[in-house]
Write a structure and sequence with these properties.
- By secondary structure, the protein is mainly α.
- The chain is built from seven helices and no strands.
- The longest helix is centred in the N-terminal third of the chain and has 29 residues, at about 10-35.
- It is globular.
C-alpha cells in the first residue's frame, strides 16, 4: 500500500472526502434509525427537564437539512416554512408546530434528497464554494467550501443524536 505522504494531491483529496462522507453517513444513519425507533409519545417529551422536546429536534433537523439543499447547490428547499418554529425560535415559543407525522415525512424526504445529491457529487465539487459565501470572500477563505458544510452538519447531527438518546428508554 502506498504511503499517504507520497500519494498525488487528487488521491489525498478523495481519501479526505471519503473520510468526511463516511462520518456523515454514520451520524445520519444513527439519527435516522433513532427517529424511526422513537414513538410519537417519546418525541413529545423533553430530552431533559426544561430542554427541547424530541418533536422540536425532529423539526429542527428537517429544517436544517432542508436549508442545506440550496446552500450546497442541490436545488430549492421543500419546507422553508419550518424555519420560523424550528430555527428562528426556541421550542417553548408557543408557535404552532406541524403534526409529528408531517415532520417525520419532511425529515425523510429532505434527508433522502440530500443523500442522493451527496452520492452524486464529484470529488472536485466538494472543494467549491457553498452558496452563502461570495466569490470574493471564497478567494480569501477557500475553506468555506461545500465539504466544510458537511463537516459542520455532521457535528450538528451528532450533537442532537446525543440529546435524543435520552428519549429512548
Amino acid at each position: 500500500m502506498e504511503n499517504i505522504q507520497t500519494q498525488p494531491a487528487a488521491e489525498k483529496n478523495e481519501l479526505f472526502i471519503r473520510m468526511v462522507l463516511s462520518n456523515w453517513q454514520v451520524q445520519y444513519s444513527r439519527l435516522n434509525d433513532l427517529f424511526d425507533k422513537l414513538t410519537d409519545e417519546q418525541l413529545a417529551t423533553e430530552t431533559s427537564p426544561g430542554r427541547n422536546t424530541g418533536i422540536y429536534l425532529l423539526g429542527h433537523m428537517a429544517a436544517v437539512h432542508d436549508a442545506m439543499l440550496p446552500l450546497l447547490g442541490f436545488g430549492d428547499r421543500f419546507y422553508p416554512g419550518l424555519d420560523e418554529a424550528f430555527i428562528r425560535n426556541p421550542d417553548k415559543s408557543g408557535l404552532p408546530k406541524p403534526p409529528v407525522s408531517t415532520l417525520r415525512e419532511a425529515w425523510k424526504k429532505v434527508s433522502e434528497t440530500l443523500q442522493q445529491h451527496i452520492d452524486a457529487m464529484e470529488p472536485d465539487a466538494w472543494f467549491a464554494r457553498h452558496n452563502s459565501v461570495s466569490e470574493e470572500d471564497f478567494a480569501k477563505e477557500p475553506h468555506r467550501n461545500k465539504l466544510n458544510i458537511i463537516i459542520n452538519r455532521t457535528n450538528h447531527l451528532s450533537t442532537h443524536y446525543g440529546q435524543l438518546l435520552y428519549l429512548s428508554k
